[in-house]
From TrEMBL:
Pfam families: C2-set_3, V-set. It comes from Acipenser oxyrinchus oxyrinchus. This is CD276 antigen-like isoform X2. It is found in: Cell membrane. Residues 146-239 form the Ig-like domain. Its main location: membrane.
Length: 305
């Protein structure tokens, strides 16, 4: 065969494949980059399937947890033959929300655990294409109101060394405990923090601070800082002088900052298709590889499920 013929066949082959793929991949999965979950409460992970064709026929959908870009452990949820099946009763699918050009899908997590934190993948195969998207579940647990105790607890005299302990429990991620006196001088550097893991992946914090008793400086505060979103505090008045009872005075303040994940940019799909179309050979190869990889992941997901 002449070289020119070979080139011609090759060019035709490319054109056919390109036509097939252009027709096939009409969908794109876009997931919220990050979703927030609170320990022991329910969490929702959101993805969106954008299609430029109406009435797409869903063949298969799948949610799994991913590590190093592959599905690990059990595939939590699989949608096939028109129904969902779950491996773990804590995971279920939110209602599918359709309109002309998009399908909202969600993974519902009940009684969120610290171990649920991580990356999740949503995969979909339809008659007009396939795609997948990743989203991250960040888990937080608020610390308990801290409790301060002192040693000795009563009959403290001026100039006596006093050890204060501030305990807070059941938080995530690991937090800090800062110490201040009544003039808000920062004594944190003179304290020692112990971070004690609990069985469910949360942490207990215990901070010990030794000071010298002074009747003119008898009020101390500890502040539990949990990644800037959550602050809890307690105050303690040293019981200086004979006959004085242990005087604890706890106050709390919680500042929660809710990060609102903004809506997704609408131009992304158009840009995506435009770029794919204008890319030629490398694009086709990439598509082929991506398709094979997708099918492989789907199979692996099933195998590990
Ligand atoms: C999908 O979810 C977004 C918010 O995440 C919402 O604005 C949009 O209306 C939803 N679409 C459908 C079809 O329900
Ligand atoms: C604070 O926590 C430490 C470490 O768990 C514990 O040994 C100590 O008894 C606790 N103190 C109080 C007052 O609960
Ligand atoms: C107090 O000191 C600690 C440790 O040096 C520091 O991390 C913290 O930001 C300080 N807090 C304030 C309010 O200055
Ligand atoms: C953490 O603190 C809680 C409440 O004080 C306590 O019940 C639990 O035993 C502590 N866990 C560990 C591992 O110290």
């Amino acid at each position: 065969m002449a070289l020119s013929d070979m080139l011609m066949y090759w060019a035709i082959g490319i054109a056919v494949i390109q036509a097939a793929y252009c027709q096939e991949n009409f969908i794109k999965v876009k997931c919220d980059p990050e979703n927030q979950g609170v320990y022991s409460q329910d969490a929702v992970l959101n993805c969106k399937v954008v299609s430029i064709k109406k009435d797409i026929q869903i063949m298969k959908m799948m949610w799994c947890k991913v590590e190093a870009d592959i599905c690990v452990g059990k595939t939590m949820l699989t949608f096939e033959d028109g129904k969902w099946s779950a491996e773990d009763a804590r995971f279920s699918s939110g209602a599918l929300e359709w309109n002309e050009k998009e399908l909202n899908v969600s993974l519902l997590v009940q009684k969120t655990q610290v171990s649920d934190q991580g990356s999740y993948r949503f995969m979909i195969s339809t008659d007009t294409g396939y795609d997948k998207g990743n989203t991250y579940l960040r888990v937080t647990a608020p610390y308990s109101v801290p409790v301060i105790s002192s040693l000795p607890g009563i009959n403290i005299e001026d100039s006596m060394p006093v050890t204060l302990t501030c305990n807070a429990s059941g938080g995530y991620p690991p937090g800090q405990i800062h110490w201040f006196d009544q003039l808000d001088s920062n004594w944190t550097k003179s304290s020692a923090l112990r971070t004690i893991p609990t069985q469910d992946g949360r942490f207990n914090l215990s901070s010990v601070f030794t000071t010298t008793a002074s009747s003119s400086m008898a009020l101390y505060k500890c502040v539990v800082v949990n990644d800037k979103m959550d602050k809890q505090r307690a105050e303690y008045q040293l019981a200086i002088g004979p006959g004085k009872q242990e005087g604890t005075k706890n106050t709390t303040a919680i500042t929660a900052v809710f990060i609102v994940v903004g809506a997704l940019a609408s131009g992304i799909l158009i840009l995506y298709i435009h770029r794919r179309r204008s890319r030629g050979n490398t694009w086709i190869q990439a598509q082929q590889e991506e398709k094979e990889e997708h099918e492989k992941t789907m199979e692996e997901g099933e195998a590990t499920g």
